[in-house]
Design goal:
This protein has about 120 residues and is mainly beta. The protein is about 0% helix and about 50% strand. It contains no helices and eleven strands. The model has no long low-confidence stretch (mean pLDDT about 85). InterPro entries: ECM_Regulatory_Proteins, FN3_dom, FN3_sf, Ig-like_fold.
């Protein structure tokens, strides 16, 4: 008896509704269990430092998918600063010389409501 099923071929950043019914002796139940889910956007790719100096980083990355991504959430650790951007590059200023920074980029869908992508990260000192 199947208790789970993988649905393939879905588009990223899309809302899908599924309804599951029981089936007993080829008779389907009247009431099903409905679930609505959002598919994640494709993660950013090729995150890299283009240029840097003692107090700033110029970051660049590419879209994981061409259409659905509406923006990105960039987090710089330390100090835990988060910046929302719509472009695929960012200049981060106000950094301290000699400090190791971890930068992560998360893709967001155009509707800004659905789930976020898996983060992509780099470290730079």
């Amino acid at each position: 008896m199947d208790r789970q099923r993988e649905i393939t071929g879905l588009n990223s950043c899309t809302e899908y509704s599924f309804e599951v019914f029981t089936l007993y002796e080829n008779v389907r139940s009247r009431n099903g269990q409905r679930s609505t889910v959002y598919t994640k956007p494709e993660a950013a790719i090729n995150l890299r430092v283009i240029d840097f100096n003692s107090t700033s980083l110029w970051l660049s990355w590419m879209r994981g998918s061409p259409l659905e991504v509406g923006g990105y959430k960039v987090t710089i650790q330390p100090p835990g600063r988060t910046v929302a951007v719509t472009k695929t590059s960012l200049i981060v200023t106000g950094l301290s010389p000699g400090t190791m920074y971890n930068v992560s980029v998360i893709s967001r869908c155009v509707d800004n409501l659905s789930v976020e992508s898996v983060p992509v990260s780099i470290q730079h000192a």
